[in-house]
Structures are given as C-alpha cells and as structure tokens.
Amino acid sequence: MRKITDLQGTFELNNGVQMPYFGLGVYLSKDGNEVINAVKDALDHGYRHIDTAAIYNNEQGVGAGIRESNVDRKDIFLVSKVWNTDQGYDSTLKAFEASLERLGTDYLDLYLIHWPKGEISKETWKAMERLYAEKRVRAIGISNFMKHHIEDLLTTAEIVPMVNQMEFHPYLVQQDLVEFCHKKGIQYEAWSPLMQGNVFDLDVMKQLAAKYGKTIAQLVLRWDLQKGVVTIPKSSKKERIISNADLFDFEISQEDMNLLDGLDRGQRFGPDPDNFDF
C-alpha cells in the first residue's frame, strides 16, 4: 500500500509529477456561484486537486473559484478533458486553448481524453503529446479506457498515458484493469466513487461505517486511497466537501479491504466504455 498521509498527499505519476490523490470533482456542479463556491470551499479547506471537463460547462466557474480562493494557481492540480466532438488532432489543440481561456490559466496539470473513440483518439493523443512536449500541460492521460482501448492507443502512442480515470466503486472494481494499468505505469483514478449515491443503501456499508466510526462516504473514499486509486468525489455542499476529506485518522484492515473488494459485481451506474453513443 502506498503511503496515505493527509489531504495534500500525492501519488507520483510515471513522469515524476506529483498528483494529489484526493480532489474535488465538479460534474453536474452548475457554472456560476454553485461551482465557484464549491471550488473555493474545497481549496480553503486544504484540497489541492480540482477536476473538471469541457462538457461539464463549468470551466469558467472553476477558474473563478481558483482566482477567488487564497491558494496560488501553482499549488493547485487542475484537470480538464477533451470532449468527443472535439477529438482529432487540430480540434483537440483548439479545444485545449478554449478550456484554458475559460479556466483563465495558461497551463493544465492534467489533460484527459474523456472517452475512447477508436482511430480518432490516436490523433487526439498525438495532439496531447504535442501539448505535453510544449509544456502546456504537466501530464496527459485518458478516461474510460478499457484494456483493449489502451492497447490499441499504445500501438501508435509515443508516450504512455499517465492516468486512466474510470468509474470505480465497490460494485465495479475491475481489478484486472487496475492491475493492467499499474503494470503499464498508468495511475488509476476513480470517478463516481459513491455509486451515484447508491452506496449509501448497502447494509454492509452501514455496518462497516459503524465499526470504524466513520461515514459511508469516508469509508469508501479511504478504500479507494488504500487501493492506490486517486479519487475525486463530487459535492457542492461545504459540509460534505469537508466531511469527505476527513479520511486520515483511520485505516481499513486488510480483511475489510478484501470484504469491500468482494462486493464487485461488474455493475455500472454510468455509460459502458464499450457501448455508448455520444
């Protein structure tokens, strides 16, 4: 198990960049005050990793939240993603510039291909390799790529992705994919770690949370970190943002880690990377 220390602790990516292993996701956070306040609240509480995407339509608010916080841009790990309709070489470069403009920054810490789109994603990746070479972005990666998508990308890639952001929670562990990414030096990252809220209904979660004197969310997020998986729970409520980060005063036993792993049933709450139409 990699060392889990505090809210600003990091995992090292395959290019040496330190990525905070805990962050704020802003999917479905409305642009304007909602996302501005969420970002400010998170940064003011000690978060240093903010994850957005072009398709979330809230990059402007994220940028405003960063500027209105008391934290320097250089101390924040800022992530965005290129959307499917912008994939391709030239269009990815344009989409990147548009994201920077909306965010009000001149670089990203991590830029991801949001979904695998076959051959065109290879062109997208070439554009991202260029952005990386030009030091416009500190790390590049992928999202929602299964093993065969990664293998296909690697047939033409010059740079191995640094991160793969996947739906990941107790009902969708995909341990073989986690291990494949680990062997390739690709950092695994969880989206939807709380199963879009469904995790709160599980009796086993209620029992374990009671055992550790923690909330169900804290238990699941700690499980992510102990598995070496970066996690970015989404919330726009200040109390939840603070509570979600209260993970560093307990450790889940190996027995209970195995119990949580054993809940895996291959069940998705989001789209299937092998069968989506957007």
Automatic annotation (TrEMBL):
Gene Ontology MF terms: oxidoreductase activity, acting on the CH-OH group of donors, NAD or NADP as acceptor
Keyword Oxidoreductase: yes
Catalytic residues in the record: Y56
Marked site: Lowers pKa of active site Tyr: K81
Domain NADP-dependent oxidoreductase: start-end pairs: 30-264
PROSITE patterns given in the database record: ALDOKETO_REDUCTASE_1, ALDOKETO_REDUCTASE_2, ALDOKETO_REDUCTASE_3
Alphabetical keyword list: NADP, Oxidoreductase
Residues the record lists as binding substrate: H114
Family: Belongs to the aldo/keto reductase family.
Record's protein name: Aldo/keto reductase
